[in-house]
Write a structure and sequence with these properties.
By secondary structure, the protein is an alpha/beta fold. The protein has helices spanning about 15-20, 40-45, 65-70, 100-105, and strands at about 1-5, 30, 50-55, 75-80, 80-85, 90-95, 110-115, 120-125, 130-135, 145-150, 155-160. α3 links the parallel β3 and β4. α1 runs parallel beside α2.
Length: about 170
């Protein structure tokens, strides 16, 4: 199973659209928070028709409207601030916050831990646990607009960069 993992969109719709165009062949999506505005939920739901798992970040302020908008899309699943998921036999922990993600990884309770918040791309092992920070869709803090696709069968993580001309 191939899973797109994105984070820290921060209302950058054009970059999100470019990312969505590149992941139409994956099986699921994980978003590690900081969508920011409720309209990003609509963009995600309309732009990707398969299952989307979302956790909230510190900049997702209008949770009422985000939740209301998500209710229009059966394939969007909101999980609050953290989620535990079993996907293709792998146990995932998902959070927005990098410090909490690292704590999940050191627990040795998960196969894969996904997080964002600091906008810094990172793929590394903590013991047997694969830590994935896909970087930022926004692309302004690090200068790189990135996301990843994780293959559950091979444990390979492929990094994608969105071109600078996108929004």
């Amino acid at each position: 199973m191939k899973i797109a993992i994105i984070s820290d969109i921060h209302d950058h719709r054009q970059k999100l659209q470019k990312a969505l165009a590149q992941i139409q062949d994956v099986d699921k999506m994980i978003c590690c928070g900081d969508l920011c505005s409720p309209f990003i939920i609509r963009d995600l739901g309309a732009g990707f028709s398969k299952t989307i798992h979302i956790v909230f970040g510190n900049n997702d302020a209008d949770l009422f409207r985000i939740t209301l908008t998500a209710s229009d899309f059966e394939h969007i699943h909101l999980h609050g601030e953290a989620a535990e998921l079993l996907l293709d036999g792998k146990k995932f922990a998902i959070t927005h916050f990098d410090n909490i993600g690292r704590m999940f990884a050191t627990s040795d309770a998960y196969d894969v831990v996904c997080y964002g918040h600091n906008h810094k791309y990172e793929v590394a092992y903590e013991g047997k646990t694969l830590k994935i920070n896909p970087g930022e869709i926004m692309g302004e803090l690090t200068g790189n607009s990135t996301f990843v696709v994780y293959d559950t069968e091979t444990d390979e993580v492929t990094r994608y960069e969105i071109s600078a001309d996108a929004g």
